[in-house]
Design goal:
By secondary structure, this protein is an alpha+beta fold. The chain contains seven helices and 23 strands. The chain has helices spanning about 40-45, 65-80, 90-100, 135-145, 165-170, 305-310, 315, and strands spanning about 10-15, 25, 55-60, 90, 105, 125-130, 150, 155-160, 175-185, 190, 195, 200-210, 235-240, 240, 255, 260, 265, 270-275, 280, 285, 340, 375-385, 390-400. A hairpin with a 4-residue loop joins strand 7 and strand 8 (about 155-160). Helix 2 packs parallel to helix 4 (about 135-145). It is globular, with a radius of gyration of 23 Å. The protein starts with 8 loop residues before the first strand and ends in a 5-residue tail after the last strand. About 45% of the residues are buried.
């Protein structure tokens, strides 16, 4: 009868952001995302006997379920009011790697790194497990998203004792693809071999590119007019999300470009041609090198011009050195009226101030260059609480400081 009253739910996320790890420091208290440390084995004390290991059964996701996963991810991503949020699509490589991990019925992250010609050398990962006879996929995804109520966008911090990593991975703007797998596990065990649940449904979702790149200094998305700052440089939009699959106007390809600072709009390509002095999809970024390491003087350490062809990310920091735009120190911001694409909202006004992010009231209302990895800090914590249901949450957050080590 106890099974009629106890509803265990487990949620976990992994946010991996680089190909190489130079240093790794484990801490249970130094990160705002960390929950109160509790040893999981102190709570779940059952060892796995030989006769109890291991009866598992894959539960292949149907096309309808795959669509449900993608659609709810995209629905939630569109709520964020982001100018650069990518529309997610299903990816079989990510699904197959998720299936491989889920089949082990081991609670915890794994098979994150992939070598060779893998589509993603590193993936992001969210995990969910429940003891009911079926998983409501929409509710599982919503559980990750609902951590938003504890996240402050301005400071990029989580409420102490709470976790927000599942939410930030789900809405990481530059993540473009997702693939998931579902497994029935009897039992689901942790990495030490202790039983987490004697019987559980185990959901693994992998993401590419992974989210939470430098989460302490980088916000998961840019607030702004939808599709005005898409990474592709074009303003093609579907349901307020950047649609990289578009090359011309169509049913799912509306042009929401926004061209500022005297840029020339091209409705057929949905791109802005920036005037001298400006850069970016909407031409709102000054054309200037952003780092003193760009184009150093002889004998001074830094990034010489040939780095532009060797490391893609150098182009993001050294706009002038890499000839990404034409500098003009005399360019005046706002000198010309803003021009809008046919699907852009010309009445949109930027908020005058930012407020702490809150959840929506209704449940149903975004390969990394390995040379950027320099150091890693790993935070791991366990938190167990009882509130009409037994909830166990484990989080691992990996943050990578960028750039210099491999140069």
């Amino acid at each position: 009868m106890m099974s009629n009253y106890i509803l265990p739910i487990v949620v976990i996320t992994l946010l991996i952001v680089g190909d190489s790890v130079v240093t790794q420091n484990v801490s249970q208290t130094s990160n705002s995302n960390a929950a109160t440390p509790v040893n999981l084995s102190d709570v779940v004390r059952h060892s796995v006997s030989p006769r109890h290991r291991r009866e598992t059964q894959p539960m292949p996701l149907s096309a309808k379920q795959e669509k449900e996963i993608v659609d709810h991810h995209n629905f939630l991503r569109a709520l964020e009011g982001s100018s650069n949020m990518e529309r997610l699509t299903w990816n079989e490589f990510l699904a197959s790697t998720a299936e491989s991990l889920a089949a082990k019925c081991r609670w915890g992250h794994g098979e994150i790194h992939h070598g060779g010609n893998a589509r993603y050398k590193v993936v992001g990962q969210n995990l969910y497990a429940g003891t009911e006879s079926a998983i409501d996929l929409t509710s599982a995804i919503q559980a990750w998203y609902d951590e938003k109520q504890d996240y402050t966008y301005d400071t990029m911090k989580c409420v102490p004792g709470k976790m927000c990593g599942h939410y930030t991975q789900l809405v990481w703007a530059t993540t473009r693809e997702v693939g998931c797998a579902l497994q029935q596990c009897e039992p689901l065990v942790d990495k030490t071999g202790h039983v987490v649940f004697s019987k559980a449904l185990y959901l693994v979702c992998n993401y590419g590119p992974p989210g939470n790149v430098n989460p302490d200094t980088t916000r998961p998305f840019i607030k702004g007019q939808w599709c005005s700052n898409c990474r592709s440089g074009a303003g093609w939009c579907k349901d307020k999300l950047c649609n990289r699959e578009c090359s011309s106007p169509g049913e799912d390809c509306s042009c929401a470009m926004v061209c500022r600072n005297c840029a020339e709009p091209n409705e057929s390509t949905c791109r802005c041609k920036c005037a001298s002095g400006w850069h970016g999809p909407d031409c709102s970024e000054r054309c200037a090198d952003k780092d003193e390491k760009c184009d150093p003087s002889p004998g001074i350490p830094g990034w010489p011009p040939y780095f532009c062809d060797k490391h893609e990310y150098i182009k993001e920091y050294c706009l002038v050195m890499c000839k990404m735009c034409t500098p003009n120190p005399d360019a005046v911001e706002g000198q010309c009226p803003t021009v809008y694409g046919s699907a852009a909202d010309s009445t949109w006004v930027a908020p005058t101030s930012s407020v702490r992010s809150t959840s929506t009231s209704s449940v149903y209302e975004p390969a990394t260059d390995s040379t950027r990895s320099a150091s890693t800090s790993l935070m791991k914590s366990y938190h167990v609480m009882m509130m009409m249901m037994f909830v166990m949450i484990t989080t691992i957050t990996v943050s990578i400081s960028n750039r210099d080590a491999a140069l």
